[in-house]
TrEMBL record:
Domain of life assignment: Bacteria
Natural source organism: Comamonas guangdongensis
Keyword Transport: yes
One Pfam family this sequence matches: ABC_tran
This protein's name: ABC transporter ATP-binding protein
Domain named ABC transporter: residues: 22-253
Listed SUPFAM superfamilies: P-loop containing nucleoside triphosphate hydrolases
Family membership: Belongs to the ABC transporter superfamily.
A GO molecular-function descriptor: ATP binding
Xref: PROSITE patterns: ABC_TRANSPORTER_1, ABC_TRANSPORTER_2
UniProtKB keywords: ATP-binding, Cell membrane, Membrane, Nucleotide-binding, Translocase, Transport
Amino acid sequence: MVNIARELQPSAQASITAGARIEIANVSHHFAQPGGASLPVLDHVSLQVRPGEFVALLGPSGCGKSTLLRLVAGLEPPAHGQITQDGQPIERPDPSRIVVFQDPTLFPWRTVRDNVALGLQARKVPKDQHARVDEALALVGLSEFAASYPHQLSGGMAQRAALARALVNEPQLLILDEPLGKLDSLTRLSMQGELLKLWQRAGFSVLLVTHDVEEALFLADRVVVFSPRPARTVKELAVDLPHPRHRTQPRFVELRQQALHHLGLDEVA
Ligand SMILES: Nc1ncnc2c1ncn2[C@@H]1O[C@H](COP(=O)(O)OP(=O)(O)O)[C@@H](O)[C@H]1O
Ligand SMILES: [Mg+2]
């Protein structure tokens, strides 16, 4: 596996940006259903992400996690409550907040490099500033595959290309919706390590949704557990362990039990 720290070029460190402060204040949301009924999805959710903090969200499938991420991304306004970034209301998508989904959604007819450059092209950043593309590819360890096409990549490499496409925009907040969810378990473990290194170097804030309790505890400063739909905050767990963390550490095991307990899964804890 490529060691990002070793591969990092000095120029890549120049793209370090400050992390966003996100404030989710008393947010409730619902969707209209056929026949006029309303489906409540978020129930008075309040949550903060401090600048540079890594926050993971855990909750049962369908509870409203992706909906909350969409609201933070600015793709939809919340029905009630407010979401701000560094004190400013979030009202529309912005390149300072980038979402990476489970599916890397690369364009098959574009090379890796051209896929990563997409955000810069869309924002009409002049071509001579595209050195950032190479920096982002170096950060995720894909420099050698810049000229490859998506079908020539493994699942983990495709997801790294999707991360590079996000990083090229120098985000202040990375919004990750189960980004490693489709990878095999070994690739997933090594990608968790790589994601951690990226975050430690880049300084952006992260809001990660995962269904993997250990992944949340391995990566995050804070883990927020949600109830079944409509999502309510059940518990916030501060992960008071320095990096690198080990899944067998007594405190790690203890936090895992607590998280599973708050998810209502005591029988597997
Ligand atoms: N655009 C939408 N219109 C109607 N219902 C939606 C929409 N998006 C999500 N939902 C519903 O909201 C609930 C929460 O969905 P979601 O936020 O995707 O959950 P999670 O990510 O926690 O699995 C689900 O019942 C889902 O069917
Ligand atoms: Mg989801």
